[in-house]
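## Example pair
The file below holds two records. Each record gives the amino-acid sequence first, followed by its structure token line.
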Amino acid sequence: MKISCQEGLVNGSTFAEKLSNLEKYGFEGIELAGHELHDPAKVEERITALKNSPIKASSICGGFQCEFVHPDPAKRRACIEIIKRFLDFSGQVGATGPITVPIFNHNQRVPDLSPYKTQHQLEIELLTEVAKDLAAHALKAKATLLLEPLNRYESNSLADIGEGAAVCRKVGPGCKVMADFFHMHIEEPSTPKSILAVGDLIGHVHLADNTRKEPGSGDIDFKAGFAALKKIKFSGYMALECGLTDKPEIALPRCAKFLKQCIAEA
């Protein structure tokens, strides 16, 4: 298991400086901000800096409207095209892949067609069909589509990592589930048991404590979760997606030390 950090969390006036700081703080990867990848100059900056750094690109997060199960086909197509570009870029820089959720609760949803099918059933079926096309593209790009379940207050399209894994099984290679400790702390009765249940279908991990701040600032049992990840032989990246309780130069090295201790003791 390797620890990563979202680029927006780390201090540095340039991307190369951010990489240098992450190396100094004890991290091994960086999660790229998708919104930065629409600018060709920033894309080249990242390619060049990553070539010259031991810090590797772990994943891509954000940078587009998550509307894969929107009732408007044009909105779905727009999301699909961006994710395909992100998959290609992931393959180019060696990242696992882009992270996506089906849709956020504040966005327009497909209608409830009960008793024919509920809104949730329709969304899962639509997501599965969309993901099949993207997973095929991912395999060609040598990357992975990462589906993220969110807690009930942000979206209920994927209720938990078990439901996310079920979609991945139907879609096949090229698609895996992204396990987020913050969301699992809300939705899963037991984070370790849920991790063990989905096994090698976990492709990436997000880390935040129950406070939505960096791990070690709250009461989530990361050692128990990491022990489960070890049992399923997860060897990928775990990226910070959270706020910080202090300045990055203080909070990030402290968090890296805490995470490495948890991994060692798990």
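Second record, same layout:
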Amino acid sequence: MAKEADFQAVFDQLKMVMKAYEDRLEIKADQPGDYSVDTHYRRKDGYQYAFGAVQIKKNYVSYHLVPVYSFPEILEGISPELKKRMQGKACFNFKNLNPEQLEELGELTRKGFERFKAEGFI
């Protein structure tokens, strides 16, 4: 039970970071343990670009930030602590979250949003 409560608290904090941009994005999922937003941009083949997601998984809470996959230079200068949380090219996994990580992830999300905007995806 404690783990579920902890994961919910982490999910809620991470969701607030992503939610700050939802008025300029399209909400794809907003249900318990699953929140995702896409851009409004569609390629000629109809594929819609995702922006990010927050999901409660079995052993952690994941924070997917697609702009860092598309533009990995956004990750330059991130802290070793946040880098350790990376799984793959665009996902960060958390069992718990400290204020410094939350703040840094917020800044990384802002950079990603601005880069997608500059590229015309938002």
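Notes on the second record: The beta strands are 26-31, 34-42, 48-56, 61-65, 86-87, 91-94. The first helix runs from residue 2 to 19.
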